[in-house]
Every structure is written in C-alpha cells, then in structure tokens.
Amino acid sequence: MGSRSSHAAVIPDGDSIRRETGFSQASLLRLHHRFRALDRNKKGYLSRMDLQQIGALAVNPLGDRIIESFFPDGSQRVDFPGFVRVLAHFRPVEDEDTETQDPKKPEPLNSRRNKLHCEFVRTCTNAFQLYDLDRDGKISRHEMLQVLRLMVGVQVTEEQLENIADRTVQEADEDGDGAVSFVEFTKSLEKMDVEQKMSIRILK
Amino acid sequence: MLRAALSLLALPLAGAAEEPTQKPESPGEPPPGLELFRWQWHEVEAPYLVALWILVASLAKIVFHLSRKVTSLVPESCLLILLGLVLGGIVLAVAKKAEYQLEPGTFFLFLLPPIVLDSGYFMPSRLFFDNLGAILTYAVVGTLWNAFTTGAALWGLQQAGLVAPRVQAGLLDFLLFGSLISAVDPVAVLAVFEEVHVNETLFIIVFGESLLNDAVTVVLYKVCNSFVEMGSANVQATDYLKGVASLFVVSLGGAAVGLVFAFLLALTTRFTKRVRIIEPLLVFLLAYAAYLTAEMASLSAILAVTMCGLGCKKYVEANISHKSRTTVKYTMKTLASCAETVIFMLLGISAVDSSKWAWDSGLVLGTLIFILFFRALGVVLQTWVLNQFRLVPLDKIDQVVMSYGGLRGAVAFALVILLDRTKVPAKDYFVATTIVVVFFTVIVQGLTIKPLVKWLKVKRSEHHKPTLNQELHEHTFDHILAAVEDVVGHHGYHYWRDRWEQFDKKYLSQLLMRRSAYRIRDQIWDVYYRLNIRDAISFVDQGGHVLSSTGLTLPSMPSRNSVAETSVTNLLRESGSGACLDLQVIDTVRSGRDREDAVMHHLLCGGLYKPRRRYKASCSRHFISEDAQERQDKEVFQQNMKRRLESFKSTKHNICFTKSKPRPRKTGRRKKDGVANAEATNGKHRGLGFQDTAAVILTVESEEEEEESDSSETEKEDDEGIIFVARATSEVLQEGKVSGSLEVCPSPRIIPPSPTCAEKELPWKSGQGDLAVYVSSETTKIVPVDMQTGWNQSISSLESLASPPCNQAPILTCLPPHPRGTEEPQVPLHLPSDPRSSFAFPPSLAKAGRSRSESSADLPQQQELQPLMGHKDHTHLSPGTATSHWCIQFNRGSRL
C-alpha cells in the first residue's frame, strides 16, 4: 500500500473517470492497482486472457459471461476507463444524490424510494444484459436455456433442462411472445429485495 | 427437580390419593394376601404430574385460541403468564405454600433445548449468514454493553442512596445482576415476534442476537459469579484475562461442539436407508446430545444446539425420507411450542411466591429504566457503526423496534434463581426485580409491540410463492457478485460464500449426502419440481372452475371436482416421490395452504366411502405398515374394478338383449329411461358417464358384428357416438390405434400383466394398476407443458377408477334405486373432465409427453385406457345430440 501515492499520479484522466463513474478517489486507486496487477505484460490494457487467469472466475459458472461483459462489441482489449465503467455498474448508488448523506440528516422518504428505484432498475439492467446475449432486448427461450445450462448443477438431461427453460420463460412471459422482455424481467424481480443484491460495498 | 417441583400438583388429587397410598406402605402388617386393587400413586407421581402440567398448558392454549379476537390482540405468552399467575394463586391458596415453580434444572435441561433446536433448525440460513455481522455485533457488543452499563448504573444508584441500604450489594454483585438481566431472551423474543411479522431482516437480527448472546451471558454470569464468590479482594489481573479468554472458549467451543454433532448427524442419516423409522429420532437424539455435551463442558449449550440445527439441516433434509422430514418438522414444532407454553406458565406460577419477594422500589424502577434506556442507546450506537458498513442501512424505525424488542425472559429468571444466597446476600431483591422485569417486558412490551409496529409502519414480511425466475436470478446474482469481487480483487462476503459453496459441493455434500440425494440436489431444480406439482394441483382445481364457467353448471359439480382433486392430491402425496406438496408448511408461517389441505383432508375422509377392512397382522416394529389411506385407495380401486368388470359383462349381455328388441320401442324406453335418469341426476344432461361410453365401445367390440352394423345403420346417434369415441381417443393418444383399442377386450387386461418399474419401487402402486403408474411417471418426470395432457388422462382415469360416490354430491345420494344400482352412482362421475379435454395440447406435445412417460407397457396400457377416456367424445357433440345420445347409452348401460 506504500505505492498508493505513486499510483495516484499514474491514473490517466483520473478526474474525468471519477466524475463519470462516481467512484471515490480511494476506490479508483484500488481499482487501478488491481488493473495493473491483472495486466500481466504492462501493455496498458486487459485482454480476455488476463481476466481468465483469475482462478476463482474460472470455476464461476457465469465467469465467461462476466468477462465478456468487459469487452463490448467484440473488441479484444479493455483499457482502464472501460474497466472502471463496467465495474461502476456494481457501485452502490447512494453517492450521487446523497453526497452529504449522514445519519443525522434523514432524507425525505421520497428520495430514498427514488434511489431504491434507480438501484432496482440498474440492477435489472445489469442482470438482463447477462442473459440477453444477442442484445435484442429480449431473453429468448434459447438464451434462457443457455443460462440454465450453466446454472443447474445437477445431472439433468437436456430435455429436462429444456422443460425448465420453457417453464421459466412462460412464467415471466406476459405478452405471450415466447421471450422475456426487459419489462417482464423487472416484474419478475420485483418481489425480491433486489436493491441490496447487486452492489458491492467496497466499490464506493 | 421436576419431581420436587411437581410433587404437589396432586393437591386436587391429594384427597383421593392420601388414604389409599398409605395402605401399601404401612409397615409391620402382614401382607394382606392378593390385592384386587392397588393404588400406586407414588410410583407414577412424577411422570403423571409432568403429563398433567403439559396437558393443562395445552388445554390453556386451545382455550386461548378459541377466540381469534383475544389472540390477535394479546400475545400468547402474556396470556400464559397471566394464567400461570392465576394457577399459582390457586396452588398457594390450596397448599398454603408456593409450589411448582420454574426450576432452573428443569428449564435448562428439558424446556430450553427443544425451543432452541427448533429455532436453529428452521433458521433461514441464508438470511442469517447475510446478516451475521450485525447479529454478532448486537449479540456480543450489545450484551456486554448492556451488562456493564446496567450493572454500573445500578451501583451508581445505590451509591447515590436511591436504593435502600438493606440491599447489600457491591459493584460486583450489581455487575452480576446486570449480566443476567441484560440478555435478550430467545424464548420471549420468538414468542412475541412470531406474531408480529416484521420484515425478515429485522426479525433475524433480533432473533439471531437473542440466540447468540447466550454465550456472552453464560460467560459473564459465570465470571461475575466466581468473582463474587471469590470476593472482590481476591480477584487478580489474570482472572480478568481468563474471563476474556473464557468468552472465546465458551462461544467458539459451543459452536464447535454443535458443528461436530451436526456433522455426525448428517453422516448418520446417510446410512439409514433401511431403517427409515429411526431417522427422526436420530435428529433429536444427536441434537440433544450436542446440548448436553456443551452443557457438560460448561460451554454455551444454546449456541451448540443452534449451530447443530443450522449446520445439519441441509444434509439431513436431503438424506431422510419425506415422511421422516414431516415427522421431524412436526415433532420439533410440537416440542418447542409445548416447552414454550410450559415455561411461560411456570413463570407465572413462580411469581406467586411471597417468600421470594423482597421488594425495593428503587432497585426495581432503576433496573427497568436502565434496561430500556441502555438497550436503546446501545442499539443506536451500534447501528450507527454498522450502517457505515451495511449496504442497506437499518433505519430509525428498525432501531426503535430493535430496542423495544429486547425482551427478557425465562433465562434471566432461571439464572437469578441459581444464585447462591450465602454469597449474594441481595439475591431475594434480585429475584424480585428480575420477575418484575420479565413480567414487564413480556406483558407490557409484548402487548404494545404489535400496535407500535403497525403505527410505525414497519416493513412487514411478505410471503410470496417462490418462482423459478426468482430462484434463477438469485443464483445468477450471487455468481455475478462473486465474479465481480474476483475481478476487483477484493475478497469480500460474496467471495467467501462462493468459496464455501464450492467447497460444500465438492467435498461436504459428497460426504454427507446420499448419492441419490446428492445427484438431484439443486435449488433451481427443486423449485421447478415443487412448482410443477403445485401447478398440477392447481390445474386440477382450475379444471373445476373452467367447467363451471362453461355453463355446464350442475349442483354436483363442485363436489365432484373436489373428489377428483382430492384423489389426485392424495395420490400425489402418497406417491412418496419426495416432493413436498405443502410448500408453505415448511416455513413457520401458517398459510392458507394448510387450511386448504385440511379441508381437502376432511373432504376426503368424509367423501370416500369406507371400504371393508381386511385386518392384516402387521406388527413389525421396524417398518411402517402401509397407511390406512393407502389401503383404502387400494380397496376403492379393487372394488371399482370389480364393479367395472361386472358392468362390462352385463353390458355385453345387455347388448344381446337390446339387439333383439324392436327399435321404436327401444327408443321410447330409452327416452323415458334417459329422462328419468337425467331428471334424477338433476334434470340436465347428466347421463354421461364412462360406463356409457364404455358400453358403446363394447358394442363395437362385441362379437355380434352384424348386429353392430345393424344398430349403426338404424341409429344415427349410436353411430355418431361410436365414431366420436374412436376419433376422440385417437386424437388424444395420437396413435391411430383406434381399431386396436376396439378389438381389445378391456376387462381382462385391467390388471397389467407385468409390473412396471415404478410399481416395483412404489408398492402402493401395484394395486392401482397402470393408471397410477401413468400418473407417477408424469409427476416424477415433470414435463411442464405436456403434463397437462398427461393430467387430463390420468385425472380422468383416476376419477373413474378411484373416485367413489361422494356423499357430498346431493344428486348422487338421492338417486332413485335402480336395477343396476351399483353402477348408478358412478355414472355421472365422468363429466368434469370434459372441459379438460378441451385443454388438449397440440398432438406433437401430447406425443412428446407420452414418449417420455413410462414406456414399458405403454401401448397396451393406452388401449386399456381408452374406455376410460371415453369422455373425449363429449366435446364433439352438440348438446342436442348429446342428450339423446346419452340417453341411449344410458339405457344400454343400465338395462338388465
């Protein structure tokens, strides 16, 4: 951690990134540190290989998809601003509208609800993109099947898996088009206490 | 101790018992020879009294719940304490001295463990670990804070002269008192919060705290107690260090003991495949052993049992059979609720003991105020710290509820009773104060917390059904977060949870779960499985609704629907396929599902006619003989089959008869008969039943080909009927086997020639024949879409096979006596499935379902099914033709 001060100078466009993503200086430093650690050959960007080398990610059933989300539009590399931008999706929302948030000063209920709603929508977006591989704004049965194949750990046959996929799509599908749209997706998430489920506290 | 405590419950009995008990004990007398009658009260006294007390407590509970109004306003614990007060008063008045108090020994060894086990076992583990940080903070820091501040403040109060000088206590005594009075009590918290239904997070924090603070309480109490006994002068610096160290030893040791026993328990249940009957016992035995072991090593016993329950649940539930699971659940709940009831009642009784009361207003008031004040202060301070780290901060309202929910209870009381009067001269004052505090928190706070929660609009817990989407998304979220933490390089909570889950999957589950259980252990799969079964049931339900909405409303409809529903539900439940139908029952929240189940159960009990019983000598102690229910099912089935066989035979003969008769007359009779019957059944087109269609089919298959053709020529309706039967069945089954089905004579084949594998596995099915197999294959495979087709078939077949005449159907019961009366009641049974046939799925789907279903004896089975599937033809008939048509069939079927 002694090298922290030296890093501060190194971050290119540190301020603009911070403004864009809302990360604090400390987290940005931490991320930059991490970025450089992942960047094996000091090439200044990360390739898929770099991320695939994270051990725990390899066992994660969704690891590949998470990695993929760092490389939009099929690009081969991600630089630091891009890296941070992706991670910003997982930052707890509170910073923007509650810069001065303090237990002493309770915000009006409305704004809190607003905030929760923001967070909810953002969470949904995050998750939705993970399902929607072809980016057509819908989770088709095929896409659902792929996710399920990753997620269901037990030995089920392909046929059973298809049945589960059918069932899952049917459950969420309200307009009967055989696919889950974003609106339908958010509806299926409404019952869960989502707001706390898609943020990582450390990314403040 | 229990014996001592309860020995005088016999007061009402005493008069009766007194005299006879003297007899056998009077010494010196020569033995009076053979006694015809001997009164041995003393030999049964202790257990008898225990049983009596529990009975009294249970009866009291029943009485309380007779009035919904009272229980919705007043928590049960309050009522029980008040009842205890009354009972104690009576005992005091009769015996002139207080008896049957809450003995610490009884409390800690017998009454507390079931409650803690219950709460540990049914603790929502995910929620618990998600909030573990907060829980631990409140449990450890909070309890320490409460103990020290309360003790010190009381001491300050004494120094200020506000406590009467006759309370001889030093700082250490007050700290000791503070340590025992500061702990939030799990029993009281559970009793009150279970009725309040605050949101899950709040509940788990308060409740988890009350469970985990036991370790702190035990340590504090023991340390202070030994300090007091040593005398403050002799306490050395190392003793303080030892005190701190013992906190870790007691808590971690207790948890370790619990986990070890959880491991043992899980491992043991892995090998109980052949002795299912002792599975529930194992759970209780090993958990209790954990408690006793921890108690023996003077570790935190509550922590041990909590961890044991928490740790073993996943594996035990996967290992033990479905029935054992239900048994464990109910036994645990019963024991816990029983213990809780007795505790509160005895608490009430214990308060009526004038010898205990050494009142000091300053001490009592001071304690009450300090407890409330420091609890609130502690909660606010800790929450402030915690909120710096929590993603979802605990807001003000939560804090109020948490402060106010700090109830004290029987643990504090038992601890204060355990004090040694010679070492702690102020014991009596402490006891009195504790009683007041306990009563105040349980009664006043318990009474007011519900209105408070309502008034503050605390987020309530909402219970919703699990959906596949939620389950799936929850898992995805976990994985996403773990992955992001990996990328960020921060090893936080999600990271470790992910690690743990992988470890669990790789090693622990493999070691502790049965192979068969391990293979199918997946939460998404689980939810899917349950959802399907629920859907199946609700589909059957819906079938009824759809039916009534199509305009075919008949008075007997609902009852018949329910018959179908119950029989299917029942079959499913009996199938032992490992599925729990009662999704909600698993949770502690009572829901409408239970009631629904109960209603169904009663309906079934009332609706099924009681078959002749065959008494089998089944007295194996190690294996449960098949249920009465199963036996009944079998009997019903057999009787139905017998009847059907007869009816088939008789219809054959009938056909010969009818053929020889002149047409016009026949139609006339047909009409008349039909009208009579239809009128009897309720004046609508109710004559339809599978017998009739079966009869039609039989006409086709009967040997007299020429007569058959003759009838088809002359009678349009008949002809139509035949055609439709054939087409409908072929449509449903998509096999083009119509002619085959017509050639097959169903009666001899009704019992399948060779048992399918499902039959071998599930013995109860053997009696049900192929149809049951059909159902089971559908349910275990769980095919979502085409399941409906399967259900159509199985339901219709089940109906015709297993549904007996229901006495709730007024029409059925008021049928006029008929020549072939035995068949009559069954005649209308087939109607409700008609609309269901309109649910028929596209042929391809139906086919897929079939191919997936049990294929061993498939084709013959289908063919056998066809007579039963006759209802399909109904959909093709216009009402007008239907009427006359049914009449004809009816006539045939019922003629002798």
How would you sum up this structure, described in words?
The complex is a heterodimer of chains A (204) and B (896). Chain A is built from eleven helices and four strands; from the N terminus they run αααβαααβααβααβα. With 204 residues, chain A is mostly helical. In chain A, helix 9 (141-151) packs across helix 10 (158-172). Mean pLDDT of chain A is 70; it is low at 1-8 and 95-110. Among the domains of chain B are: 104-456, Na+/H+ antiporter like fold (Up-down Bundle); 468-537, no CATH class. Chain B is 72% helix and 0% strand. Chain B has 41 helices and no strands. In chain B, helix 35 (770-781) runs antiparallel to helix 36 (787-802). At the A-B interface, helix 3, helix 5, helix 8, helix 9 and helix 10 of A face helix 20, helix 21 and helix 23 of B. Chain B: One of its GO terms (molecular function) is sodium:proton antiporter activity. Chain B: Keywords: Antiport, Cell junction, Cell membrane, Cell projection, Endosome, Glycoprotein, Ion transport, Membrane, Phosphoprotein, Postsynaptic cell membrane, Sodium, Sodium transport, Synapse, Transmembrane, Transmembrane helix, Transport.
